[in-house]
Structure formats: C-alpha cells, structure tokens
Amino acid sequence: MALFLLCKSPAGPVRMKRIQLLLCCFVLSLIIYFFNGHKPAVNLKSAHPLTEVLGMKDGTILKDMSAIKTVDSKTPQETSWGAPLVWGDSHNSVGRRASLSERGIHVGLLALVVGTYARFVRHFLSSAETHFLPGQMVTYYILTDNPRTMDPPVELGPGRQMKVLPAAELPGWDRLAYRRMVLFAEAIWDLIGNEVDYVFCTDVDQEFVGPVEEEILGDLVATLHPEFFQMPRNQFPYEDQEDSSACVEEDEGDYYYTSEFYGGVVSQMRRLARDCSLLILQDQANKVTARALEESYLNRYLIDHRPSCVLSPEYSWWDSPMTAHVPKKRLVSLGRQCDVYDMKKREQQKC
Predict the structure, then answer these.
(1) Is 102 a catalytic residue?
(2) Which pick of 64, 68, 95, 117 has the fewest CB atoms within 10 Å?
(3) Once rounded to an integer, what is the mean pLDDT over residues 29-58?
C-alpha cells in the first residue's frame, strides 16, 4: 500500500529514492522468504524440461525417431535372485577385480575348431592374449579335427599355454550342433577339470575387443543375449516344442542367454556339460531338433540352475537392428555378425 501511495504521489527526487529503496526491500524480502523453505503457490516446472529439449526421455536418447538404449543408473546391477549383473566398468566390477586380481587363478578357455572355423582361431587367440584375463594363468584348449591348423604354434605370453585336443571329424552343422556339448563334456571330465580352477566355453569365431578380466569369475556364469536384453519375456526364443527336452513353459525363464560365452568353476561346468549333453542326445534319439540348437538346451539348464554371475551384453555383442547399445564392447561375435549381413556384405567381409 505504501508503495502504491508513493507511486500515485507527484514525482520528485526524494520520492524516487524512497520508491527505489522500497523496491529493493521488497525484492530482498522475497529472496529471504523463498530461501527459508517456502515454496511458491504456482508450478515453476518448465513446460519443456531440458531432457525433452535435448531429445531425451527416461534416460534414453532419441535420435532419428528411434530409441537407442543406453546403460544408466537405472540399468540393473543384479538379478532378481541376487546374482551380480556384470558391466565391466561398474563400481562392483572394479571391486571384484581388485579382490581377485592378486589371487593365483588358473582359467581354461575351451573352443571347438573344425572345418572352416579353423580360419578364425589365430585371430581369436591373438585377441584373447591382449584382453582375456591378463596377468592370470590361462590355458587355451583347442578341440579340433585338424591339429595341423595350429602349425606353427601361436606365440603366447608368460603363464599362458595352449593344448590341442583331437576331435573326430564332424561334417555338417547339424552334426556339430549335437556333438559340441558332448565333446566339451568329455574334455572337461577327462582332462581340463584336473588342471584349472575355472573353465569358459566359447565360440571360436569371436574377437576380444576390450578387457575381460576377473569380474567374470563365478561359480556358474552365463551371458545375456544382446538381441533379447531388456526384451519382454514373451519375445525370448525359448524352445516351445513340447516333445523336446529343451522345452520351456510360458511361466518359466528370467533371461535369454547366448551360447557364445559361458563358464564357471570346474564342478559346475562338469554338471552343466553332462546334463545338457544328455538332453541333446535324448532329443536326437527322438528325432527332435530344438529351434536354437545347443543354445536351447543351455537356456533350459540355466532356468533350472540359475547362474551365480550374469554377464551383460558387453561380453557377447554384434551389430544388428535388435542388439542393445552397450557402454563398451568386450567380446564380439564375427560369426553372428556375418549372419546379419546381406550377401554382398558377406562377400566383402569374407564371411
């Protein structure tokens, strides 16, 4: 009211100074009022928040009208049953590496190299020497139908060695799909299990492109399939033939895992390889073929025996319209990458 009366009065130097003083006091009182915890009655939230202006929503960046998945603070760090969900650069992974790096751990890396897959093995081993558990003892077990594939031997670093294990010739993908797990089981039971603490099974048509270190170690380790990460459960390609040993019911399953990379302690891997082999042989006897071959049986097993450590798609990745964006690629499947290419691109990449 005082301010109103002054404004209505004839203007003069003294009155103008008083008006200025009252305005300053008025503004100062508003500042004190708000800083003392009082909130305005109106909603000051912007109608266009910064995340919307920049094309972001709920941590997802929108680009060219399509959503690119990003890993942020909302990305789960553990499964519903309490197993760690491993992202290589997360705080949990840094801690796991620190606690395990000083321990003397011996790890086996097992791969089947038959037929045309022989062309991948040297590049696979070279990339593993750079990125796979540097500083730890590692033995590469190469199951092959042609031991001359490894001549001359690949040069390995200190504490690393390679053992070539003969495997019977396996013509055709169908035979290979049924036999690989059986061969893995035999190797783990007969030799590998007496030499290492952990063993990881892997496809040889892959390349390590980033650090894969002690954060991956666990009793039973599975890797999330990059094309079905954060997809709805009903999108998972579980086996649905009721007469298959790999059949998964509609109310079963938490994740869909890839067969590109999985492992664990010897005792767990002996059990996994044996039980999956029995399921495969049972279906083979009944002339049943699971839709995803070995991967179907692996997923069936991991539903019944939940893994103690789940690796994010960083540890099994390839570029396709369905794959999730990851902060860092660590293991890339060259074989599945080729499956995505058209014929021209396959010829260019020599797939």
Answers:
(1) no
(2) 64
(3) 36
Six token digits for residue 8 = 């209505």
Query: What six digits make up the tokens of 49?
Result: 């928040």
**Bridge partners, 333 (sequence order):** 206
Q: How far is CA 178 from the centre of its chain?
A: 26
- Whole-number Å distance between alpha carbons of 248 and 245: 9
Catalytic entry in 213, 239, 260, 295: 295
Q: What is the pLDDT of residue 106?
A: 97
Distances (CA, A) of 278 to 89, 181, 237, 275: 38, 9, 21, 5
Q: Residue 62 is encoded by which pair of tokens?
A: 């929108």
Residue in 44, 140, 69, 84 with CA at minimum distance from that of residue 327: 69
Cα gap 128→341, rounded to integer Å = 25
Give the least confident one: 69-78, 86-95, 190-199, 207-216. Answer: 69-78
d(CA 294, CA 304): 16
Contact 317, 332 (CB under 8 A): yes
> Which of helix, strand or coil describes residue 67?
strand
Close Cβ partners of 143 (under 8 Å, ≥ 6 residues apart) = 110, 111, 112, 113, 114, 165, 166, 167, 183, 184, 187
In degrees and rounded to multiples of 5, residue 89 shows phi and psi of -100, 10
Candidates 129, 300, 323, 343; CA nearest to 226 is 323
CA distance 339 to 241: 25
Output the pTM of the full model. 0.76
